[in-house]
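Predict the 3D structure for this chain.
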Amino acid sequence: MSKYVGIGYRKDFGSAFLESDILDPAFVEVAPENWVDVGGYWKKELSKVANKFPIYTHGLSLSIGSPDPIDWGFLKRIKAFIQEWDVQVYSEHLSYSKCDNAHIYDLLPIPFREDAVKHISQRIKEVQDFLGRKLVIEIVSYYTPVAAEMSEVEFINSILKESDCELLFDINNIYVNAFNHNYDPKQFIEQLDLSSVKYIHMAGHEKVSDDLIIDTHGQAIIDPVYDLFEHAISKLNEPVPVLLERDFNIPEMEELAIEMNRLEGICQKQWSHESCIA
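Done. Predicted structure below.
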């Protein structure tokens, strides 16, 4: 049977990840910044993982929307990592986290403007040319728009068209943004260029008040996000890999397996006639 759902590989798992059959992902995802230039014990552990599962990457530091120049030294290391580990997907965030050489941990929103579209699209094309592959860009959660001159979906579609990149379809982020900014997530999905979808993320969030959700990746996925996921993948022309994200407050593997199995069941329902994506 084809499998579609992967999991983020974390050092917290240790050897239990390989020694147990509780989790049986279609692939694993790593943040390349956490593994570039790693040697010794952890490189051996990653090698064991790579021998068993395809490796996908989700970057944290490209800062594609930054006004600063592209860090080509950093990208050179990423390219070497991608080649060494035969990485299937390199994804990043449609945001920025660096300005005037100051790095922050938050992913800052980019103004929904035509000049931002041109700036980011040009940077994406330069990165793609350097890496020799398409960049997969994630729709991020944001909590306030900044000097917007177009809608969020127009902004995303314009970047996809102008840069010819691919899309990381983060369903939880769409749910969070729709809740916080009072729009219909299904209507947003209907307007999005779904032909560019290469990859999907699914995660949990935390509702902190009646009108605010925070995208934490530290909770279990809730039923409305599962429902939105099923609606979203029913609109795709072909299967794509689906990742379960859990960045902190990590539960026992049995709990992660329950979420993975539920996602897998939805994928099988929609995509059972397709061939394996991994």
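The chain has one domain: 5-271.
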